[in-house]
């Protein structure tokens, strides 16, 4: 029982949903993160499931995924979603939970231990945000305000990406995740996992060198702790291997 | 708030308590096959089928099932495939205490609705939402191959 919840609002429009948002009200989609946390400061849920897009569209240049699409739907179709499918599958070990979670929720929750969120940060797709007007903004520039309605991923970026993860077991949450995307003139690196923050770096292809890669490894490794998964030095060596393997996939 | 849904082939129209989980509602209304495992969804012993998909009822608030079809193992007493699965589970020794058996059987039922000839990796993936050390998965995986 989430005992602090006193009211559930089913808004008829994005405008109504945004107008009802207060400090003690949250937008409710798949709900797994919210229901497992049961934050007692929350007293109102604004259920946006009937508003958000749940479709998947593919054209020559982009893949448009409704924010209400279940993570399992993405995990299930490797042919369409490419490496995003693997990231979705690894984002949670349980098919049951993937059936409930949505891709929009993975972005909104900013869970840096989620393979899917990490990979999406690397891809940096365009988000269609309703606030309530329609705003198109890159994922990394989104301030968390408004409701994610669609995610537009470049097919070229998806095909020019690499993804590596390290975990105790294949089914266990990763303690280190490395994602790399090659764009026309730059390489995007994103490193996360059981770290204190997600680390991202964009490097111009013209700046690519052994020293610049070492700098990424050193700067990202310091966000990991000495814990049961190994020392910071060990993680730095895994990041180096992860970057190498991710780049080889491109 | 009033909701309407189908639970085990019966239409339910009910006033709900905001914040109540589907798990709590089901237990209060006699669906005792749905078991408590955890509030975080790790165990999956609270598995039910919602519109044919295996999901964790502890991670879902009751208002979310408005206009949905909810199934627990109680509705399968006349289901031929599930009875066959139950018998195979017993034959291969895939049941110990039976605490998680309904969750495993529902997960496998959901898989067979998607795919009538699943591979072993697909069976293992279907069972990935149910964490149970009693049988070590070898026997349930064997039992799931009809």
Give the helix level of chain B as a range of percent. Answer: 25-40%
Determine the strand fraction of chain B and express it as a percent band: 15-25%
Tell me the count of domains of chain B: 2
- CATH C-level class of the largest domain in chain A is Alpha Beta
State mean pLDDT of chain A (0 to 100 scale): 96
Shape assignment of chain A: globular
The run of helices and strands of chain A is EHEHEEEHHHHHHEEEHEEEEHH
Total number of helical segments of chain B? 5
Strand order of the largest sheet of chain B: 2-1-5-3-4
Helix content of chain A: 25-40%
Rounded to the nearest angstrom, the radius of gyration of chain A is: 19 Å
The level-1 CATH class of the largest domain in chain B: Alpha Beta
Q: CATH superfamily membership of the largest domain in chain B, which one?
A: Beta-grasp domain
The number of helical runs of chain A is 11
Of all protein chain pairs, which has the greatest interface, and how many residues does each chain bring to it?
A-B, 26 and 29 residues
Task: Explain what this protein looks like in three dimensions.
The complex is a heterodimer of chains A (250) and B (146). Chain A is an alpha+beta fold and 250 residues long. Chain A has 3 domains: 7-47, no CATH class; 56-158, Uridine Diphospho-n-acetylenolpyruvylglucosamine Reductase, domain 3 (2-Layer Sandwich); 161-249, Enolase-like, domain 1 (2-Layer Sandwich). Chain A contains 11 helices and 12 strands. Chain A has helices at 14-20, 32-37, 71-75, 78-81, 83-91, 95-100, 103-109, 115-123, 155-159, 210-221, 232-249, and strands at residues 7-9, 25-28, 44-47, 56-58, 62-66, 126-130, 134-138, 147-154, 161-166, 176-182, 186-193, 199-204. In chain A, the strands form 3 sheets. Chain A has a 5-stranded antiparallel β-sheet with strand order 4-5-8-6-7. In chain A, strands 9-10-11-12 form a 4-stranded antiparallel β-sheet, with helices on both faces. In chain A, strand 6 and strand 7 form a beta hairpin. The radius of gyration of chain A is 19 Å and the shape is globular. Chain B has a 5-stranded mixed β-sheet, with helices on one face. By secondary structure, chain B is of the alpha+beta class. The mean pLDDT of chain B is 93. In chain B, strand 3 (47-50) and strand 4 (53-56) form a beta hairpin. Chain B has helices at 22-28, 80-92, 101-114, 120-126, 138-144, and strands at 2-7, 10-15, 47-50, 53-56, 69-71. Chain B is globular and about 45 Å long. In chain B, helix 2 (80-92) packs antiparallel against helix 5 (138-144). Chain B has 5 helices and 5 strands; from the N terminus they run ββαβββαααα. Chain A binds chain B through residues 1-8, 28, 31-32, 35-36, 38, 45, 47, 49, 72, 93-97, 99-100, 171, and chain B through 1, 17-21, 24, 39-42, 44, 47, 53-56, 58-61, 63-64, 107, 125-126, 128-130.
